Amino acid sequence: MVSIKLRSRDPLTVGEVAARSGIAVSALHFYESKGLISSTRSEGNQRRYARGILRRLAVIRVAQRMGVPLAVIAQALEQLPKGKAPTVADWRRLSAAWRDDLDARIRTLTMLRDQLDGCIGCGCLSLRACPLRNPEDIMATQGPGAHVGEASAKCR
Ligand code: FES
């Protein structure tokens, strides 16, 4: 058996990327189909990845854990140089934007949870009165307090 030692700049096979990143080959193909990562082809028409792909994949996975949609991740990564690992400065910029988005989602989810608290004991699901059915309702901005009771009374 001939052992070939890889040089540190040799491109990686899809199997090597999967092993090093902990991401399934099928997921790597999916990411590539969505434009999140890219590869070149070997003489035998097999995928080859620049080593910077590992850091790029780490960014993708962290963003996914934060609930960033793949389309948004793809847009962000499009702004980075192809085939190069995201730098620390790239990460700072991307993660700061995603943190703002995460804060906004937390605020929205907190508001929805508070509204749901008011709706749990109600059940009217009224288009006029229920803040979850009608999120633009002015009363919904006042929280699930007394007006929810009023809404329940109106629906009876
Ligand atoms: S179920 Fe939402 S206010 Fe009645």
TrEMBL record:
<dbReference type="GO" id="GO:0046872">
    <property type="term" value="F:metal ion binding"/>
</dbReference>
<keyword id="KW-0001">2Fe-2S</keyword>
<dbReference type="GO" id="GO:0006979">
    <property type="term" value="P:response to oxidative stress"/>
</dbReference>
<keyword id="KW-0805">Transcription regulation</keyword>
<dbReference type="GO" id="GO:0051537">
    <property type="term" value="F:2 iron, 2 sulfur cluster binding"/>
</dbReference>
<dbReference type="GO" id="GO:0003700">
    <property type="term" value="F:DNA-binding transcription factor activity"/>
</dbReference>
<dbReference type="InterPro" id="IPR000551">
    <property type="entry name" value="MerR-type_HTH_dom"/>
</dbReference>
<dbReference type="Pfam" id="PF09278">
    <property type="entry name" value="MerR-DNA-bind"/>
</dbReference>
<keyword id="KW-0411">Iron-sulfur</keyword>
<dbReference type="InterPro" id="IPR047057">
    <property type="entry name" value="MerR_fam"/>
</dbReference>
<dbReference type="InterPro" id="IPR009061">
    <property type="entry name" value="DNA-bd_dom_put_sf"/>
</dbReference>
<dbReference type="InterPro" id="IPR015358">
    <property type="entry name" value="Tscrpt_reg_MerR_DNA-bd"/>
</dbReference>
<dbReference type="InterPro" id="IPR010211">
    <property type="entry name" value="Redox-sen_tscrpt-act_SoxR"/>
</dbReference>
<dbReference type="Pfam" id="PF00376">
    <property type="entry name" value="MerR"/>
</dbReference>
<dbReference type="GO" id="GO:0003677">
    <property type="term" value="F:DNA binding"/>
</dbReference>
<keyword id="KW-0238">DNA-binding</keyword>
<protein>
    <submittedName>
        <fullName>MerR family redox-sensitive transcriptional activator SoxR</fullName>
    </submittedName>
</protein>
<keyword id="KW-0479">Metal-binding</keyword>
<keyword id="KW-0804">Transcription</keyword>
<keyword id="KW-0408">Iron</keyword>
